[in-house]
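Q: Predict the bound structure with fe (iii) ion.
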Amino acid sequence: MTALFMKVMIMKELADLHLHSTYSDGVYSPHELATMAKAAGITVLALTDHDTLKGLPEMEEAAKEAGIAFIPGVEFSARWENRQVHIIGYGIDEHNALLLERLADVRNARRSRLEKIIKRLHEMGMDVEVPVPEEGQRAVGRPHIARALVAQGYVKTVQEAFDKYIGEGKPAYQPQTKMTPPEAVMLIHQAGGIAVQAHPEEIGDRALALKLLGALAYDGIEVYHPSAKTKETEFFWLKTATERKLLITGGSDFHGNPGRFPETLPGWPVEREKVQDFLRRFGL
Ligand code: AMP
Ligand code: ZN
Ligand code: FE
Ligand code: FE
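A: Predicted complex:
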């Protein structure tokens, strides 16, 4: 094998279509993400902050400066049958009135929920103080609390905070938002976007995931995601997407939280060619 061939093999272009920034519950700003993505060999990225479009202009600018192709996104936290169903909208119109209005409602609900969780932690004897970002259309989430619990020494990692206190079913857990999957898909479509079922395995109920995929007008499935822990799982969703003629996307869901996989970029690389049909929709 020649040295050149080896180099071509190693330098496969990467895509990351699922990233969180400081505009929701990520640790890094869009500019920091762009710098890390560039160094990692990522040539196309999407910002998919929870329930806000506020980071998109900065991410677009930062990606441009870094020479990385950019796709705008947003991740909705919907619920159905007591399960969390995350849905990503790609290529949405950032000025769509209905979308902006509903996202503002959801962010307000997120703030009230955060206060409830903090109150519960106080009752449990943890005097945690959570530095939440100033309003400015940023979305707050449980990782903000988890990081504060780590900083104040109540737990060692973000993961431990979820496992002991704020994960689903744990003593300080509070469910959030009354957004439903049909509403999320509708909001994305009326804003001109592509609706993708995010990390279907993370729903924790394949039958429900398949039922939703059959019932709603999804355009794609996030096949490549850290929650698809085995090749068999990944293949199951790949087959499902192919059979249903749905687009295939993938991303690392990088938040930058210590103790929560993936901790680095690209801690969970996706080869660009695997999501090429999706990228074509954006002229890439
Ligand atoms: P929230 O939107 O406030 O419900 O928080 C959801 C976010 O918390 C997800 O995007 C993950 O980054 C993080 N998260 C969810 N479950 C866990 C877990 N078990 N351990 C660590 N982080 C988690
Ligand atoms: Zn998150
Ligand atoms: Fe998610
Ligand atoms: Fe996410």
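A: DSSP finds ten helices and eight strands in the chain.
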